[in-house]
Amino acid sequence: MSNTTWTRHHILSLADFTTAEYDTVLQTAASFQEVLSRRTKKVPTLQGQVVANLFFEPSTRTRSSFELAAKRLSADTLNFASATSSITKGETILDTAKTYLAMGTDIMVIRHREAGVPVAIAQEMDRLGVKVSVLNAGDGQHEHPSQALLDLFTICTLLDPDLPRVELLKEKKIAIVGDILHSRVARSNIWSLTASGAHVHLAAPPTLLPKLFLDYANDKPGKLFLHWELEPALQDADFVMTLRLQKERMSAHLLPSLREYHQMFGMTHSRLQLCQPGVKVLHPGPVNRGVEISSEVMDDPEFSLIQSQVTSGVAVRMALLYLLGSGKA
Ligand code: NCD
């Protein structure tokens, strides 16, 4: 397992990730995928290191898969959930992070509902001169790098199971459909997919897809297109990413009704006829069945990659923890 190209100390955003870094993540994750298919699924790579999962916002799959990834690498794990923590007694986020530092944490995996919290903690760790790495597990509407990396891995391993690599995405058409305005998953995916040379077509009602997205990623090899209706985004698409309507982040009445949204933008079998034959559908979860995607598409193994995204998540997060952790031993 080679990580000679890896110099990054924190993973906070994909905006400046290089194709060499993407390929390192993909190939490292492929090795761990192989480990996960063995009878003994554990390796001693991070023995003696401490991984703290600091989740200040609810999560099912991201938190569980970081925890499992850390355990499969033989790290010791600390799990924090803000509802049962001293945050409820008024402790600040930075003081919480310093508490975990004092216990010898090597890697902090951080999710917070405000954009910028992982960056602020990383800056504080650097200021203190400690070697702790920070991994952004989703901050507000900003970014969710590990989700976009597992999406990339899911797509690339489908295209070449033996050697997943970004060049496989060159000139592919990928539609991202749904609540783009509130989605950190969309923002991270825009960086990784356009850097890989894929053409990304965003589709949503205008209230959920402001024009400012046009300024995104214009220095990347893949192009970005905006559509306020679904059909042109789906036409001949190779992959379709659907996104949850993030009702908890909607401040105003941005949609007439969920039923109308499903009629206009919901992913159904008949809509997928517009895409390339063999099109695959992704969704980061959690899913609102019957809103952004029909139950039939979601449960159809011919189209849906949703379960393999979750499975890939463990191998990709093992790769990220390994790449950050292996320099610390
Ligand atoms: C996403 C998130 O939390 O950003 N889910 C995830 O991490 N798998 C998307 C969402 O909440 O809709």
If you had to describe this structure to a student in words, what would you say it looks like?
With 329 residues, the chain is of the alpha/beta class. 36% of the residues lie in helices and 14% in strands. It folds into two domains: 19-143 and 311-328, Rossmann fold; 145-309, Rossmann fold. It has eleven helices and nine strands. Helix 1 (19-36) packs across helix 11 (306-325), helix 2 (61-72) packs across helix 11 (306-325) and helix 5 crosses helix 6. The longest helix is centred in the C-terminal third of the chain and has 20 residues, at 306-325. The radius of gyration is 19 Å and the shape is globular. The two termini are 16 Å apart. The mean pLDDT is 94. N-carbamoyl-L-aspartate is lined by residues 61-62, 138, 144, 147, 184-185, 244, 246, 284-285. N-carbamoyl-L-aspartate (NCD) is lined by residues 61-62, 138, 144, 147, 184-185, 244, 246, 284-285.
Sum up the structure in keywords.
329 residues; Rossmann fold; 5-stranded parallel β-sheet; 9 strands; 14% strand; globular; binds N-carbamoyl-L-aspartate
Fold topology:
Layout lengths: L18 H18 L13 E6 L5 H12 L3 E6 L11 H10 L4 E6 L4 H12 L4 E7 L5 H15 L13 E5 L6 H12 L3 E5 L20 E4 L3 H4 L4 E4 L15 H8 L3 H4 L7 E3 L12 H4 L7 H20 L4
Parallel strand pairs: 1-2, 1-3, 3-4, 5-6, 5-8, 6-7, 8-9
The structure holds N-carbamoyl-L-aspartate.
N-carbamoyl-L-aspartate binds next to helix 2 and helix 6.
Uncertain stretches of 5 or more adjacent residues = none
The largest β sheet comes out as: 5 strands, parallel
CATH superfamily of the largest domain: Aspartate/ornithine carbamoyltransferase
How much is the radius of gyration in Å? 19 Å
Terminal CA distance reads 16 Å
Element order: H for helix, E for strand: HEHEHEHEHEHEEHEHHEHH
Oligomer: single chain
Mean pLDDT: 94
| Class per helix and strand makeup | alpha/beta
- Helical residue percent? 25-40%
